[in-house]
Amino acid sequence: MFFFVGGTQMIPEQKYSREAQYCDRCHHTKHWILEKQRHWIALFFIPVIPYSTKYIAYCPICRNTYIITKEMYDKG
Q1: Residues 6+ apart with CB under 8 A from 34
Q2: Which of 3, 13, 56, 74 has the largest CB neighbor count within 10 A?
Q3: The dihedral of CA 11, 15, 21, 22: what is its sign?
Q4: Residue 13 has pLDDT above 60, yes or no
Q5: pLDDT given for residue 1 in this prediction
Q6: CA trace torsion 8, 10, 11, 17 (10° rounding)
Q7: DSSP labels for 10-70?
Q8: Whether the predicted model's global pTM rises above the 0.90 cut
Q9: Is 51 exposed, middle or buried (0-12, 13-18, 19+ CB in 10 A)?
């Protein structure tokens, strides 16, 4: 008997920005968290094929989020 277990899985990678950023929402200046979110097709809960990548930056205090480019993520 063979069971196929499939689905999707999101694996985040995080790092801090090199320079402190000002947040318009909470008015704090902090090093923001940069996150690379990779979405994978999973087979038996093991990520097999990546199908989407998103880059975001967010304030560590209020979680105000912006979508950024790959170059901005790499630059830090």
Answers
A1: 14, 15, 16, 17, 55, 56, 57, 68, 72, 73, 76
A2: 56
A3: positive
A4: yes
A5: 54
A6: 160
A7: EEEEEEEEEEEEE-TTT--EEEEEEEEEEEEEEETTEEEEEEEEEEEEE-TTT--EEE--H
A8: no
A9: exposed
24 Cβ contact list (under 8 Å, min separation 6): 64
What's the CA gap between 57 and 66, in Å, rounded? 5
Residue whose entry in the numeric block shows the structure tokens 């402190």: 20
Span 22-62, pLDDT tens digits: 999 999 999 999 999 988 888 877 888 888 899 999 999 99
